[in-house]
Amino acid sequence: xxxxxxxxxxxxxxxxxxxxxxxxxxxxxxxxxxxxxxxxxxxxxxxxxxxxxxxxxxxxxxxxxxxxxxxxxxxxxxxxxxxxxxxxxxxxxxxxxxxxxxxxxxxxxxxxxxxxxxxxxxxxxxxxxxxxxxxxxxxxxxxxxxxxxx
Length: 150
What we know:
3-stranded antiparallel sheet, globular, 4-stranded antiparallel sheet
């Protein structure tokens, strides 16, 4: 399953066998319970003060569902939720113009759902471009005039 995402994972420095095995395990867990094929993935990450990357969760997108395995490096928690009809989108960026990420770029995206709270995504460096692309492909098309939270 990871072959499809190898270039992406390499770009965000997930290339060691232990990390790859953890990500693959997360994808298997989500796919086991999700009734649809995973279309895309995103790894939530941030940079610590010492410059090392911290990976928080594996996020998955299908046609009708969102999947997440949080705390995947410790005790994984699997969540699968349907895409709701009502949602709002919030994007917060630092050193990022939504065109080309640099090593200093940071992006935080919150999708607010009227039915089950918020879903948050984080990205640093080149991962900001990937998260932007995921939002454009999977979230933006679902925003509709008159939609949003009541």
